[in-house]
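dumping this here so i dont lose it
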């Protein structure tokens, strides 16, 4: 007589995670978990969906699909960036039929040609009769905020109020770079064969970097990957102490000149808007994440006049940003399936920079092009392993992977608040 195999609930899986260890494999592979993740982490929280340079001119549109939802980002005739649900107010047809960029005069539904101004108002709808009120059928707006070049939206009726903390912390850090005066020099979209949480776990630690990212490690100091003093010899301990002193001296000099360096974290279980930031010293010339650590673009961002400003990081629950004196790299993930995640990476340079004159595209992009492709392979391999019946979550390194345990606790808390 066979006995039925009991399938654990989502909550039972979450509760089974041992503190300081990875998540159970079912949390990466199950369809029901994936659908809940999309609803909680991408439909209820603030999410990054693009950059201001995606819609540089009035009439420019950038359409983003998130699960069953689709969003139109548009710059209107008054230069304002707006967001709407990509749903016609007539019979629900998609107005923009596919994700990506376009330029339009007005937003026209391809089904019955209902036509909307860039401010969302309905301007044309034929044969609807004299009692029809077009003012009641404008496009459905989406909550939108811009921070630097980042375009954030929230699909919830009532968005989390603690996003204001991110605005307050990040606005002065981004201000000198004037990121709204940038253009997209390059963009890369990769579908990684892994769960979105594994993509983010991979991004939140550099335990793996020394052995897998030869291009990226050029701009890091070896100790940036984490350091466990246990069992280290005197030379290694002295080198680490020198590293700490060197970083402290560089940051002290930056702060004396008015550059914000302080590490700031809002990552615990109580917050909805999960982010952290700091200014990191870049190895070598301390200028840019390039193979020679020197700027790739000689026309610096904003009103910046010096090159050696390190790297201003911002990590979110599904995104990461690096801002240097000469360019910015902004990336975010969109979950497609339990084992499929879209990763979009954008390289921004000064809006007046000229390719071949002010910057060399290969030098600008080679580090993160290589790193992103390498990460895709790492994530696919990790996802495959977590679906093996033999998989048992192992312990995180407290010296190199503490952010992963923080992320796991935050993930659990947000689901618990949502009733999972």
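and the seq i came up w/
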């Amino acid at each position: 007589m066979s006995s039925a195999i009991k399938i654990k609930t989502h909550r039972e899986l979450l509760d089974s995670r041992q503190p300081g260890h990875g998540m159970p494999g079912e949390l990466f592979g199950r369809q029901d978990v994936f659908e809940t993740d999309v609803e909680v982490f991408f439909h209820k929280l603030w999410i990054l969906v693009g950059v201001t340079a995606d819609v540089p001119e009035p009439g420019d549109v950038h359409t983003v699909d998130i699960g069953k939802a689709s969003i139109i980002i548009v710059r209107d005739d008054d230069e304002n960036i707006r967001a709407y649900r990509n749903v016609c107010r007539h019979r629900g047809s998609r107005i923009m039929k596919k994700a990506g960029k376009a330029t339009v005069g007005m937003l026209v539904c391809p089904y019955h040609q209902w036509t909307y101004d860039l401010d969302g108002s309905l301007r044309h709808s034929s044969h609807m009769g004299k009692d029809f009120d077009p003012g009641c059928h404008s496009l459905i707006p989406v909550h939108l905020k811009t921070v630097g070049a980042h375009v954030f939206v929230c699909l919830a009726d009532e968005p989390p109020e603690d996003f204001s903390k991110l605005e307050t912390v990040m606005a002065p850090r981004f201000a000198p770079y004037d990121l709204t005066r940038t253009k997209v020099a390059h963009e890369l979209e990769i579908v990684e064969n892994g769960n979105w949480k594994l993509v983010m776990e991979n991004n939140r630690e550099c335990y793996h970097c020394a052995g897998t990212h030869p291009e990226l490690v050029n701009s890091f100091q070896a100790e940036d990957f984490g350091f466990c003093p246990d069992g280290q010899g005197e030379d290694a301990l002295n080198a680490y102490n020198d590293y700490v002193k060197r970083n402290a001296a560089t940051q002290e000099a930056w702060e004396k000149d008015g550059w914000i360096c302080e590490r700031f974290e809002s990552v615990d279980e109580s917050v909805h808007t999960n982010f952290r930031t700091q200014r990191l010293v870049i190895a070598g010339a301390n200028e840019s994440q390039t193979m020679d650590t020197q700027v790739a673009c000689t026309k610096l961002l904003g009103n910046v006049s010096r090159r050696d400003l390190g790297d201003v990081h911002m990590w979110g629950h599904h995104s990461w940003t690096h801002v240097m004196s000469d360019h910015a790299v902004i990336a975010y993930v969109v979950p497609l399936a339990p084992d499929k995640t879209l990763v979009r990476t954008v390289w921004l340079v000064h809006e007046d920079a000229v390719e071949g004159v002010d910057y060399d595209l290969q030098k600008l992009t080679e580090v993160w092009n290589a790193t992103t492709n390498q990460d895709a392979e790492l994530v696919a391999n990790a996802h495959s392993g977590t679906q093996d019946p033999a998989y048992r979550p192992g312990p995180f390194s407290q010296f190199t992977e503490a952010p992963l345990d923080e992320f796991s606790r935050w993930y659990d808390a947000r689901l618990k608040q949502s009733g999972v």
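Residues 163 and 273 are 6 Å apart (CA to CA).
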